[in-house]
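Lab notebook, bench 4. Continuing the backlog of folding jobs that were queued last week. Each job is logged with the same field layout so the records can be merged later without manual cleanup. Today's entry covers Glutathione metabolism protein, a 127-residue chain. Filled in by technician R.K.

JOB TYPE: sequence-to-structure
TARGET: Glutathione metabolism protein
LENGTH: 127
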Amino acid sequence: MRGITPLYAGLLGLGFIALSVLVIRARGRARVSLGTGGDAGLERAVRAHGNFAEYAPFALLLMLAAELSGAPGWLLHLAGLLLLLGRLSHAVALSGPGSMPLRAGGMALTFAALVTLSLACLATALR
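JOB STATUS: finished
OUTPUT FIELD FOLLOWS
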């Protein structure tokens, strides 16, 4: 069986690139090369990108550790889907005009993935 973590790492990597492009475009529109210059659209794009960069790598590290430790494939896929949907929902909510329910839902899904993966790591370490 091929690794499960590379699937989600690849998908999240493409999401990271998409968010990077949104920041670059917003910088061009706002004519701001550093910081956000007080531009609300640029601020949202920068935070969507930054928040993604803050959560996705750590979750992928947990996923890889769980996978290498023998966590079941179904659990890894569940956590991967939670993470992917969570990060996508959160990024969409922050990048656009904003939707607090979508943003909160994205964080809830991301936290569910982190808890699932953390528990999987603990379970495989303690068995």
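OBSERVATION: The radius of gyration is 16 Å.
SIGNED: R.K.
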